Amino acid sequence: MNTLDFLTLPLLACLLLIVVHCQFGLHVIARNVIFVDLALAQCAALGATVAFMQGHMPGTLGAYAWSLGLAWAGALALSLIRFAPKTIPHEALVGVMYVASSAGGVLLIDSAPQGAEHLKQMLTGSILTVTPDEVLKAALIYTPIIGLLHLATRRGWMHGHGGRAWLADLLFYAAFGVVVTSSVAMAGVLLVFSFLIIPALCGTLLSRHHGGQWAWGIGLGGTASLGGLLLSLWADTSPGATLVTVFAVVLLLVMVLPRLVMSTTTRHHAATLGRRTLSAAVVVSLVWLTVQPRADQPLLDAAEKALPSLQALYMRPVERQALDESQAYVNRYAKALDQLTEREQTSRWMGTDDDDTVRRIASFQQSYNEMIKGEQFVMKETRARARERLRWPLVGVLAASLLGLWLWRRKLTSSK
Asked: Does the pTM of the predicted model rise above 0.90?
């Protein structure tokens, strides 16, 4: 299976989530209850945790019922916030709901086996392993909700006073609870919040009309999703955390780039600052390599990861061979470790192996971890010894560069 085939379903799930959450996000921003999604998502996660403690497997009807029930309870509480004293900010009450739900989940999961794994699952989700059935069910749930929300927005049903306003809030948060319950199961609390707020903020920055804001949010959200999924595969990082980071970077670019484009002077200053920052980083890295060649070298490590051929400039062939062999062993051990970890998780969830087998699996995992650390130590020591030979040539290069810079500045000063 190639990369495109592997990412098709996760990308489709991301687009589906962005379409519905961006629509809700625009309303959330307009209502100034930014963290309502986190609160409802955490209520749904608390329901999933209660279901987990009751023995309901993730994805089952029992787990969904518990999540939806707690999400609707949170929706009812959120709709009643409008009757709170005016001296209390509504956002503060939303934050209290989020904190209380989070604390309840931690208390429940604290003593459960594989509790930490369940908590991580609730936070970051498993968007890469989403199934066609999950996407289809979510699409069937989201489609009528999107249509009704769009109709309510056009006809002004979201505005009103007294009991009508409370009913509108209750229905809005209840529909939001249905969406969040399905979303958290696929993407996790953190990614769902990113899907809700960041595309909507980008749309708000780039357009003044609701339709344009929604379109911009979907377009930029889809682009960020594709970039985040590709980066997660390339860097072998958590897909949920990587997607959240990429979404944050996209928002930063949307905030900064228009201002840079509008001002030539600003672009010039930014380019000058960028060149000076990069130059300073290179100089500091070279000085650090000269003073401590065996210490960590972040900039050189990043450059070598992007361009592995740089190692040929200072490594001997035998050192390159040792690095390649150690890396091959690390890859082999890591693959075996992943297989053992997957079997252990399946065993703990499904009970397919007895306790002795699980303990042997844990022993093998520890052995593979130690072997990986050993090979990584060999790689680090090989690089350190090779870099140590660069110390004196670098001293000469830095001294000549500083002398040339001093003579050049002196010539400029004398010519004035």
From this structure: no
Half-sphere exposure of residue 79, counting CA atoms within 13 Å on the CB side? 23
Give the end of a domain, one of 217, 237, 261. Answer: 261
Reported as a pLDDT band with limits 50, 70 and 90, residue 158 is low
| Alpha-carbon span 104 to 112, nearest angstrom | 13
SS3 94: helix
Residues 209 and 305 both lie in one domain: no
Based on the fold, state whether residues 162 and 62 are members of the same structural domain: yes
DSSP one-letter code for 111: T
- Residue 21's domain comprises 3-261
Residue 162 and residue 29 share a domain: yes
222 and 359 together in one domain: no
Sign of CA dihedral 198, 203, 208, 210: negative
Are residue 238 and residue 301 in the same domain, yes or no? Answer: no
Three-class secondary structure assignment of 59-76: CCHHHHHHHHHHHHHHHH
307 with 256, same domain: the answer is no
pLDDT winner (highest mean) among 189-198, 280-289, 354-363: 189-198
pLDDT tens for each residue of 315-326 = 888 888 888 888
pLDDT of the residue at 185: 74
User: Mind listing the pLDDT tens digit for each residue in 6-20?
Assistant: 778 888 888 888 888
Helix (H, G, I), strand (E, B) or coil at 87: coil
Whether 416 has a pLDDT exceeding 60, the answer reads no
Q: How many angstroms separate the CA atoms of 284 and 280, rounded?
A: 6
Q: How many CB atoms lie within 10 A of CB 92?
A: 11
CB of 168 closer than 8 Å to CB of 158: yes
